[in-house]
Every structure is written in structure tokens, then in C-alpha cells.
Amino acid sequence: MKRSIIFSFAFVASLFMTATCFSDNGRLGMYGYSNERADDASFFIGERTWQSIGDDKWNIAGTGSGGPPNILSELEYLGLTSTIYEIYGGIRAGRGAIHMAYGFGSLYGGIYRDSDYLRDDRQGIYSLSTGTAESKEWNALYYWNIDYTYRILTNDQEEKFNEIYLDMLVGYQLWHEKITMANGVQEYGGTLGPFAGLNSTYEFIWKSVRLGLEGGIPIYKGFALKGSTIFIPYTQYEGEGIWNLRTTGVFALKQSPSFTHSAKGGYGAQLEAFLVYHIHPAFTMGVGYRYWYIKSGKGDDITYFSDGTTGITQFNEAVNERQGYFLDISYIF
Q1: CATH at residue 95
Q2: Does residue 10 have a pLDDT over 60?
């Protein structure tokens, strides 16, 4: 948390100095409201610090046709905390704009739960293990977006800063998470208690189409409310696991990787709302809340054994959910 505050403060300071050097008092009125029309080109940059917590999970069926059992094995990663630093920028010309963003952060404080079942609908559990789930790599979680927006509604003034507006959005997103499991404890089935040496990893990769709306409305003397609703109508999912404890015996697994998941279809959504204040001409700060959810379609689970053979069963789904508050700073010039 201390590191996130320092990072945001440094970015605020650099943007404020930039705004001081390049602001034009002849063009911008009080509270940063522009007298220019929206058909003039403008650039924007910003940083958003998102203090988030999330849960991830995936599960597979017992056969390639979906069972029985319809859920053979399920991995859940719960309470994954991440301070995500998002850097964004773009250009607006007329009613259209191109927006790009890159976010990154480590994952910490989570637990995993690995459950195996004999019967349909999570009945007949025969193995349950738990442990820690995290990754201290600086980009264990990262994403990038590229979006195009078109202003479909605006007030008569069409001012950059002091307008009621509604934008239509279409875009693309790549989202990646890599989680390391350690400190395993067998809770049910087999030899109960802690087991040594666990250092397995799993990666979630989402490639998604985004459609949505963004809007804003001024409320009082430099304050404005903004928000967005983004729907993901299609996503392509890839997962990859390395199970480091299964290296010997009849069912020994390869380590590069041990298994892969692939699925098409699915859906998701991103919702956010925030309060913005113009503290300097063209320079804003805001605080808000973001919710993100995505679910894959069905696909294939391919297991790679060390003897060169493979096993294929149905991949049922992967689900990621993340939410939390954020601080936002931006500069428009």
C-alpha cells in the first residue's frame, strides 16, 4: 500500500508540473473548462491505481463429452489482492477517440482450494487440499486495452471538460494472471496434513472483445460524475498449468507444461463509477470503484504425461472476478 501511494504521488507531481508548463489561460477557463469545440484534436494521459481483490477458478469434467462426473476437478483461487497500476493515454479528434491502457501488479494474500469428486454436481468428494496462492512478480497480473469511442450525445457547447456526454465504445482486451501455489495441506483423502515441495503454477489468459457506453455529467463547481458499462460478448480463453509434484510414477506429468486449457465463447462485464474534480486547467483527480467479471465457454483440457502420451477431457469453465476502489489522475492537452 505504501508503494502504491508513493507511485501515485510521483505521477501526480509529474502531471502537475506538465500542466503548469503547458496550460494556456487564454484557452481554458476556471476549473479547466475549455472554450474550444470538440472538433479540435486533443491528447490525454493518466494513471489509475486500482486497489483490488479477486477470485479465480476453473474446473474440468471426467470425460471428453462432459462426464460423469460433470465436475471431476476444480481449482479455486480466493482472496487474491492486487494493487494495479494502470497507465493510459489517447487522442480525441472530433467525436471520435482512441484510448489505450496498460495495467500491471503483483498478486498476494490469496489461498487455493483443490477439490476432486467422484459424482456429478460436486458430490462424492475424495480429495481436498488447500494452501497459499500468490505471485510476487511485478506483472503477475497484467492487461492491456485498446478502445475506440464515438461521442453519440453531448450538450450544445460541446466543450471538452464541462459537458454532459455519452460515448459508444468498441475495443479489445488481453488479460493475464499467473498464480503460484505453495504451502499445501491435505484436508481430505490420502495422508492428511502439510505436504512439502509444492510450487505449482497456473496462468489465466483472456482475449476479449469489448462493447459499451461511457458517460459523464458535471455536478458542482468543477466536480463531475463519470462512469462506464462495458459488456464482453465474446472471449477466447487459454490456461496453462505446471504441477511440480507429479514428476514420477505412472501418471507423471511433463513440466513444460503439465496441461493446457482452451475455450471459445463466454461473456463478461466491467462496471465503474467515479467522482472527478478539476484541480487545475486540464488536470483532474478522481476516486471511484470498478467491478470486473468474465466467464469462459466450454473447451478442451489436455494433459501431457511424461511418457509422451496425452489425455483429453472437457474443460467446463474458467471464471475471474475482481473489484475495488481506484484513484485516478489525468491531464488533457
Answers
A1: 2.40.128.90
A2: no
